[in-house]
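In response to a reviewer's request, we include the raw inputs and outputs for one of the modeled complexes. The two entities were modeled together in a single run.
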Amino acid sequence: MVAIQSRRRIDPDPGFVRSFAERAQDLPGAASPLLRRLRAERLERFMELGVPTRRDEAWRFSDVARHANRPAGPAAPVELALERILPHLLGGPKARRLVFVNGRLQPQWSHVGGLPEGAQVESLARAAEARPEAVAAALAGPDGGRSFTALNAAFSDCGAWVEIGPGVELADPLQLLFVTVGDVAPGMIHPRVRIRLGDGAALELIESHVGLGPGPVLTNLVLETELGTGARLTHDRLQTMAAEATSIGRIEARLAAEARYRQTTVVAGGALVRNESEIRIQGSGVECLLAGVAMPLGREQVDTLVRMHHEAPCSHSDQSFRSIVDERAHSAFAGKILVHPGAQGTNAYQKSDNLLLSEEGEVDTKPELEIYADDVKCSHGATCGDLDPAALFYLRARGLAPEAARALLTWAFAAELVERLAEPTVRQAARRALAARLPSGAVPLEEAA
Amino acid sequence: MLEIADLQVSVAGKPILKGLSLRVGPGEVHAVMGPNGSGKSTLAHVLAGRDGYEVTGGTVRLDGEDLLALEPEERARAGVFLAMQYPVEIPGVANMYFLRQAINAIRKAREQPEVPAAEFMRRVREQARLLGIGEELLKRDLNAGFSGGEKKRNEILQMAMLEPRLAILDETDSGLDIDALKTVADGVNRLRRPDRAFLVITHYQRLLDYIVPDVVHVLADGQIRRSGGPELARALEEQGYEGVLGARLAA
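The model returned the following structure tokens for the whole complex.
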């Protein structure tokens, strides 16, 4: 196998094939021969592609095989008490919601009814049952040689199918909550989400991932979204995975003219959290704002990859990512702005700022520009450093203990981007999750009110 | 109350203060004037405990306690307040949240209970009104995007709220127009009390028209060269540092 020779890929664990054989009959759309065939074919594709190593340029900062290439069955079914779920139900009392625990829909906490005409939110299972051809078409989409996209298509065991028709604006947020409960035996889930907004449609999406209990769990998500002309998608993401959990998430967005896409991600927990966003701006007047805060601790790793394609003239994109790295944690950011030929008048910015609080921590940042048009404004920048000594002195000179001053400044560094989360309940939850990770725990939460 | 004796300080191996001595009694306002590079800001920073200054000799005592042995936060809790020449902008930290943290840190060190939120807000609003600080500024992040004048007013607001024993003003007049200068000076004058001392560090006499000092010191080449009453400041204004000290000393 070529992949093996170059060592850019290694063979997947045979456990994936075993697990697939066990589960194929229960996966969404199993009644459809088309879907069954397609899944089997996607699994073969995954086995052929192999699992990337650090020699694969897209994975140079993370040893994903160590985290994800191990035999894993389906995450075990768990009954969770309401009080364990309650703190993670975000978006307010009127929010629509699909809640999955270890990849299984929890109807008692899910509610997607009463939507305006033209708007439809379904679980993946229901969509696969009702319209197997459409789901198959989505799963059959090109994987670009990405192993985990193929793996997701093979297993896609949970997720959502969202269709908001032209001109329909949802007043209340939609939360997709993926809870994983680690067990002794490694488990995995493969959420698949498809969101289509018609011209002028609007949706506020909350995507949250919560890890409960120890034990290794793999979450391998693919979220595809398509925004019509003038459509607006606000996408708040909160990832609080358990210490041994691995999350690989890929977001693909296609934006038509005048569309607005705002994505804000907060990562607070997970052995490896890999977030990919590939955005294609296909019309003029688009505004695309991506922001993210990550705060890995211990030996945790956060790896963010962004591909921002400007394929049409006169659109605006902005990426702002921050990480706070303490102990032996590792943060990596690789972002690329690609201005395609003809995309004149593009405004594209990218910034990666990193706070490195320990000697043993590691920060890698790789901002890139690839520009094939001459009339554009693009910039990128990266910083990495410790807290500002002048600011520390200022706070101490007012009586704050050094630990409190450090915590406050660390908090401030994160807080600016946390404020970009659109939904107040998500902001609050993100603040709580980050504050719990501050060095001294001196938590300025009251200002959140 | 504040006793500085033969203080010698180097920055990066270069002597800046070369045997500075000064005594400030309770209730007194002392001005320290001097040409650029004379060591005025070094004095302010050393008193507040900033890093990067090496004390090579001498002592500083506040109410008999060795100030130089204390960390910056311990000095603040002992009652030292430095109104900075360049207050740091800290986006992400709310102005009021910070101020309350500071007050409570100091109160805790003094074994006093935390200030109740309502009383805190009432006092802040009252002080802010006196200093011409709008409600909007209180709600902003600490000094973030503040104009020069707004930063200086915010420093005086902090000073008023933290109720120091020894207040040091480091070039608080720099960058202020005449109205702001007057407001800031009024703010300081309101805080004058029999048990509180002020050290006003300034390059110009202008501020001293409004904050009338008990004693004026002229600092040049790392030492106090001349001390006198308010008339010394006026003499400096008229004759310049060279005129008062002679060209050699003023250099």
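As requested, we also summarize the result in words. The mean pLDDT of chain B is 92. The first helix of chain B runs from residue 40 to 48.
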